[in-house]
């Protein structure tokens, strides 16, 4: 027995079959959409808020602010509501309506601006006034530490230590950084594969950051390989996941899956795990499944 926060983590790991011909290679999907807030970001949001409260940086009177492309915002809105905290979430105006409505349903104030870079600047400027506490997922160690504590150990446990490749989209890079730290400690031979969009692609949840906005928690030495993902490939793979594997997810998950299949076709044997970041119902008002 417990509250909704106690249901975060221990998400299913399911095998995805029928996308390559080598029986000695397995692909597994880590279904992070099964978290109560619907995405992998529940883990980081909980760890960032709870850790700051434990350090005394946040009290019931603190007003939180954070820039987000969507999933972190939903997770923060849900967890802030559980702790009785006020939060303002700043998002690009291109974000799907479902995301805004979900944040508002949890009681958050939502501000929509031109793009993610402008949203980040706005949140940092308001925090600089001293009236707000910025969680700053892009530079907050509690972001990646959530995955050292939970996601990495779950993957190692559920593959019985057989994982050879870990594949993840790169946005804030918290998931790939934390999982890399944990998994490499168990077996340094595990290959960490990151995904970023091609220069002309737009994939929600995956970013190709300008140098000045590169997340401060990102350490390129912890990623063995980066695969560029075309928007069309991410879209088609997302649709395939739903129609052929029963996995209803967003476009960043399709991008990670595309990279996982690419790796599967290159190796002779192995156990590949990719992160399914969220659920597809966040994209129904877009043309993703059209």
UniProtKB/TrEMBL annotation:
Protein name: cysteine synthase
Keywords: Amino-acid biosynthesis, Cysteine biosynthesis, Pyridoxal phosphate, Transferase
Reaction(s) catalysed (UniProt annotation): O-acetyl-L-serine + hydrogen sulfide = L-cysteine + acetate
CDD domains, per the entry: CBS_like
Names of required cofactors: pyridoxal 5'-phosphate
Residues that bear N6-(pyridoxal phosphate)lysine: 41
Entry similarity comment: Belongs to the cysteine synthase/cystathionine beta-synthase family.
Gene3D superfamilies: 3.40.50.1100
Presence of keyword Glycoprotein: no
EC number: 2.5.1.47
Species lineage: Bacteria, Pseudomonadati, Bacteroidota, Sphingobacteriia, Sphingobacteriales
GO biological process, one term: cysteine biosynthetic process from serine
Organism the protein comes from: Sphingobacterium lactis
